[in-house]
């Protein structure tokens, strides 16, 4: 409904003053052009307003942007009932305010009997309304506005349908669309979903009103987030402004002593709450943050931010907690799907390794065993033993990869120098040499990290020795110099490099895949290395090193993930 009269005061929503207004579009209907202009000018600092000069014009100009209709009493008294019936054919619950002077009050109130969505705001005079009458009208609009942004059950239900039907590759898009829906419904400036991990809140999804301020924050320490330790961690919402007795949805007896406000334990006053650095830095007057809980575990926070002051009724907080749970279970479902896909992919890769690579040493072992059985000659017993040892190594590697890579045990702060030396002693290094530089302490699972280093050392020695032996025999006929492996601390982690043949750039993306090998190894060692690194929350990359061979760099800024 966006009707306008032809008497020179046409005003559309697009031409409304661009100053910050509530997203609550008012249609004012009045035959008096002067009154229309005055009411419009009085309301537009707060609300976008369009006007119409007759009920017929208003009813015929149905516009979905209209949130409330205000009808002058003189028009309502004549054919207001017919107008209400027309409105209800389009919007069953659109609020209608009847703005009339005192002599028409009986007529106006009579209309309430047939339509409980209407309200009456009295005007003191038959001519231009007084300032007091306009203040009452604004109060009525404020009530309707607060009501419109305090019940989001229908929107949450729509979002539930949206998320449940989302395809795997649509999850992130649908969550951000859900934030947009709820943000528009609440007239918010920003809506964010934070992931909670290791005392850090990191925004993963964000919607911001394009006509308002910029996006929300990057990572936030939990001790810098309002009320996190005293409310969110206890699975309670955080509301700014805090709840007050006047905002309760129950009657509190005058004689009542104490507090009936759950969760109000992080701030003593409205002023203290809004002075919090998180809010002041972002120019926020209002915030509602609800915990995202999945299977009794806090996994994130849903935050609604506004740069204007508003209340947060308890019922609305509960509705948004439901939305947080929907988002949490959607993300959890997608993570489980991805983990299942990774497991299926790993199973396929294991099958390929078992059926191909493991079959080769088995065929060699079987062939030589049959030859020995036929001839009684033990000349080839060494080949049999070598094939058996290779199969045993491959089986150990497969078992290591088959374990849950995300599970860590016994996280400790260890001296990296000592663990590297222990891992080196656990590998057949022959004449190879180890160099260590600038190694500090590191929080890790020592057993898993030792497994990482052992596989890197074994990989460097096997490939380096094979390449050097081949080159030395072909060129000089003499023995090749021993392999050198270096482990050093770097600014954000550590690195392991060698002076072997290196890894060609075109193969670096493939080296961590099961079955990849550049020599006589099992093809599983580097996959184990990546699995251990990911279990700790680290990233690993490979490049050329200063020694001329491969250099594996581990960024360890993220803390390890504890096993669940």
Notes on the protein architecture:
This protein has 564 residues and is α/β, with parallel strands linked by helices. It is 41% helix and 19% strand. The protein has helices spanning 33-43, 55-60, 73-90, 105-111, 131-148, 153-164, 171-186, 270-274, 277-281, 314-357, 359-375, 381-402, 416-425, 446-475, 525-535; strands at residues 25-29, 49-52, 66-72, 96-101, 118-123, 190-197, 200-208, 220-221, 238-240, 286-294, 297-306, 412-415, 433-437, 441-444, 484-490, 493-498, 539-544, 550-555. β17 (539-544) and β18 form a beta hairpin. GO terms for molecular function: phosphorelay sensor kinase activity.
Helix and strand content put the structural class at alpha/beta
Radius of gyration, in angstroms, nearest whole number: 36 Å
Q: Which second-level CATH architecture of the largest domain applies?
A: 2-Layer Sandwich
**Content of β-strand:** 15-25%
Count of domain modules: 3
Number of helices: 15
Number of strands: 18
List the helices and strands and how they pair.
Blueprint lengths: L24 E5 L3 H11 L5 E4 L2 H6 L5 E7 H18 L5 E6 L3 H7 L6 E6 L7 H18 L4 H12 L6 H16 L3 E8 L2 E9 L11 E2 L16 E3 L29 H5 L2 H5 L4 E9 L2 E10 L7 H44 L1 H17 L5 H22 L9 E4 H10 L7 E5 L3 E4 L1 H30 L8 E7 L2 E6 L26 H11 L3 E6 L5 E6 L9
Parallel strand pairs: 1-2, 1-3, 3-4, 4-5, 13-15
Antiparallel strand pairs: 6-7, 6-11, 7-8, 9-10, 10-11, 12-14, 15-16, 16-18, 17-18
InterPro entries: CheY-like_superfamily (IPR011006), GAF (IPR003018), GAF-like_dom_sf (IPR029016), HATPase_C_sf (IPR036890), HATPase_dom (IPR003594), His_kinase_dom (IPR005467), HisK_dim/P_dom (IPR003661), HisK_dim/P_sf (IPR036097)
Catalytic activity: ATP + protein L-histidine = ADP + protein N-phospho-L-histidine
Protein name: histidine kinase
């Amino acid at each position: 409904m966006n009707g306008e009269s032809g008497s020179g005061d046409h005003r559309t929503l697009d031409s409304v003053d661009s100053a910050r207004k509530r997203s609550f579009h008012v249609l004012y209907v009045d035959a008096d052009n002067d009154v229309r202009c005055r009411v419009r000018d009085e309301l537009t600092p707060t609300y976008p307003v369009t006007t119409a000069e007759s009920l017929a014009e208003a009813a015929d100009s149905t516009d979905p942007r209209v949130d409330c209709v205000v009808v002058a009493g003189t028009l309502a008294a004549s054919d207001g009932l017919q107008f209400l019936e027309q409105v209800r054919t389009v919007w069953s619950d659109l609020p209608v305010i009847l703005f009339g002077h005192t002599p028409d009050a009986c007529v106006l109130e009579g209309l309430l009997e047939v339509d409980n969505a209407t309200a009456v705001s009295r005007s003191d005079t038959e001519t231009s309304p007084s300032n007091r009458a306009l203040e009452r009208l604004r109060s009525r609009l404020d009530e309707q506005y607060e009501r419109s942004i305090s019940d989001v059950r229908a929107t949450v239900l729509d979002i539930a349908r949206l998320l449940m039907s989302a395809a795997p590759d649509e999850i992130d898009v649908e969550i951000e669309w859900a934030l947009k829906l709820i943000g528009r419904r609440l007239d918010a400036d920003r809506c964010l979903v934070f992931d909670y991990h290791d005392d850090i809140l990191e925004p993963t999804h964000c919607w911001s009103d394009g006509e308002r301020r910029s996006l929300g924050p990057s990572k936030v320490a939990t001790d810098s987030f309002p009320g996190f330790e005293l409310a969110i961690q206890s699975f309670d919402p955080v509301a700014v402004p805090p709840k007050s007795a006047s905002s309760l949805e129950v009657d509190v007896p005058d004689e009542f002593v104490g507090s009936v406000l759950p969760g109000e334990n992080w701030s003593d006053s409205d002023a203290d709450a809004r002075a919090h650095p998180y809010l002041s830095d972002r120019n926020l007057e209002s915030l509602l943050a609800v915990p995202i809980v999945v299977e009794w575990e806090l996994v994130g926070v849903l935050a609604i931010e506004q740069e204007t002051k508003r209340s947060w009724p308890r019922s609305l907080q509960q509705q948004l907690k439901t939305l947080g749970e929907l988002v949490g279970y959607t993300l959890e479902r997608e993570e489980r799907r991805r983990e299942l896909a990774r497991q299926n992919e790993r199973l396929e890769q294991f099958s390929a390794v078992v059926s191909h690579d493991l079959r080769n040493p088995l065929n060699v072992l079987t062939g030589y065993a049959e030859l020995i059985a036929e001839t009684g000659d033990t000349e080839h017993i060494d080949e049999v033993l070598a094939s058996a040892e290779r199969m045993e190594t491959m089986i150990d590697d497969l078992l290591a990869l088959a374990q849950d890579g995300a599970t860590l045990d016994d996280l400790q702060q260890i001296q990296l120098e000592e663990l590297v030396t222990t891992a080196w002693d656990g590998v057949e290094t022959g004449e190879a040499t180890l160099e260590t530089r600038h190694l500090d302490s590191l929080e890790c699972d020592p057993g898993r990290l030792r497994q990482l280093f052992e596989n890197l050392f074994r990989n460097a020695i096997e490939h380096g020795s094979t390449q050097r032996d081949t080159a030395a025999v072909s060129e000089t006929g003499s023995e090749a110099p021993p392999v050198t492996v270096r482990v050093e601390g770097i600014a954000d982690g550590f690195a392991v490099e060698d002076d072997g043949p290196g890894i060609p750039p075109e193969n670096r993306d493939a080296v961590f895949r099961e079955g990849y090998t550049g020599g006589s190894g099992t093809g599983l060692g580097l996959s184990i290395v990546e699995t251990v690194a990911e279990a700790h929350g680290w990233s690993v990359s490979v490049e050329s090193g200063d020694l001329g061979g491969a250099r594996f760099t581990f960024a360890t800024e993220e803390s390890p993930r504890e096993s669940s």
